[in-house]
Design goal:
Layout (H helix, E strand, L loop, with lengths): L4 E2 L6 E2 L5 E3 L17 H7 L10 E3 L7 E2 L6 E2 L1 E3 L15 E9 L5 H13 L1 H6 L1 E5 L2 H17 L20 E11 L2 E13 L8 H7 L8 E6 L5 H4 L17 H12 L12 E5 L25 E2 H17 L3 H10 L3 E5 L25 H10 L4 E2 L3
Parallel strand pairs: 8-11, 8-12, 12-13, 13-15, 14-16
Antiparallel strand pairs: 1-2, 3-4, 3-7, 5-6, 9-10, 10-11
């Protein structure tokens, strides 16, 4: 069977030749020119925003980088998804395309974590690994800077809750980036590019089986999953939190094991009796609330080794330490569920901010001090072969 691609914006699959083209509406060599118009498909799939000022869509061999518009005879390089009509990244299909679903319960801190993670990858991790993270479309570059990074790093403000997919008429598109890494080969250094698509899902979208099936079908096409869980929502962990830590209320919140169960049921919906092979990074947030309980030699009291490779041994040490904590947090059902249903999963403990925010939902005066936030993504990238590994395990 020919390899299928997955759109980084709508998460639908299609064959390479099914990719369509959009006319650029420039004056062609024959003197013809198409008029811009509204794209009804884009409106229906991605929400009515900017689809009124686009060229017409036409079918051609999507395996080729260019096509000639049948109406104006003009050549175009605009390749689009045949399902949602979003413009596909340059070189789409000729570099790795990895879709990463970021899910978790309500109030687990997903948006803060995603913002700090991408900031770290663009700066500290990028420098250590010799990597670059580039927004692949104008919307991603604008939205990440103004709606995420500026709000958190410049204005020192936290985010309101993410709207659910079912009520968000102007739905939030995924943030799509190109992750580029210099790799040494026998022929010298060569760049390796990977398309990364991040979708920040509202916790309410995982509050029931029906909402999971209706609003988050993109999970079935994800190459990797970052599942963010808040230990402060686990009864066995709340009592041990650092005094003064703001605890989430219990009304309207769902137990982390229930969120994991619904995600698992959806991934198993295809009827397979085999374990799920999608790598799942199970990330426990707000670990700064528990540092005082850890022994001095705990790997969760130290930072990841500073090197240009993913350290497998360090990651496994963290994994086992978190598994030990789960026993104290009444989290054994989480461990048993993962062990029985997934072939690849790894535990992580992170802190996006480094300490508690202020009572008025602002960053503490000491600023943002992230701890191990990049570990889950680097593990996924190492599983994809997009970053090199070091160590045994």
């Amino acid at each position: 069977m020919a390899r299928r691609h997955t759109c980084p914006y709508c998460y639908e699959g299609f064959a390479p030749r099914e990719i369509r083209f959009r006319c650029n509406c420039r004056l062609s060599r024959t003197g013809k020119q198409c008029e811009r118009r509204r794209d009804q498909v884009l409106d229906e799939r991605m929400g009515p925003r900017r689809s009124h000022d686009l060229g017409p869509v036409f079918a051609a061999d999507g395996r080729k980088p260019t096509a000639v518009c049948p109406d104006c005879d003009g050549e175009t390089t605009y390749r689009i998804c045949p399902v949602c009509h979003s413009e596909l990244p340059v070189q789409f299909g000729r570099m790795d395309n990895r879709l990463i679903a970021m899910v978790g319960a309500k109030a687990s801190g997903k948006t803060v974590y995603m913002t700090v993670l991408l900031h770290e990858v663009r700066n500290r991790i990028g420098e250590a690994f010799g990597a670059a993270l580039l927004g692949l479309d104008d919307a991603t570059m604008r939205r990440y800077s103004t709606e995420y990074e500026d709000r958190l790093y410049r204005d020192n403000q936290l985010f309101p809750g993410t709207q659910t997919a079912s009520t968000n008429l102007n739905r939030v598109d995924p943030l799509v980036f190109r992750f580029s890494l210099r790799r040494r080969t026998l022929l010298g250094e060569r760049p390796q590019h990977t398309v990364l698509s991040f979708f920040d899902t509202a916790g309410e979208d995982f509050s029931s089986k029906e909402s999971v099936e209706l609003n988050t079908r993109y999970l079935t096409n994800a190459d990797g999953i970052i599942l963010l869980l808040d230990p402060l929502q686990m009864p066995g962990a709340r009592d041990g939190a650092l005094p003064g830590t703001p605890l989430p209320g219990t009304t309207g919140l769902d137990a982390p094991v229930n969120v994991l169960s619904r995600v698992t049921n959806m991934l198993l919906a295809g009827g397979s009796t085999q374990k799920i092979d999608v790598p799942v990074a199970v990330v426990f947030s707000k670990m700064d609330a528990f540092w005082h309980l850890l022994h001095d030699a705990s790997p969760l009291r130290d930072y990841a080794p500073a090197r240009d490779r993913f350290d497998v041994g360090d990651s496994l040490s963290v994994h086992e330490e978190v598994r030990r904590l789960l026993k104290d947090w009444d989290g054994v059902p989480i461990d048993q569920l993962l062990e029985n249903h997934y072939t690849r999963y790894r535990y992580f403990g992170v802190s996006a901010l480094g300490r508690n925010p202020t009572p008025d939902a602002r960053i503490a005066a000491t600023g943002i001090q992230p701890y191990r936030v990049a570990d889950p993504l680097l593990w996924l990238l190492s599983e994809f072969g997009s970053v090199p590994k070091a160590g045994r395990g």
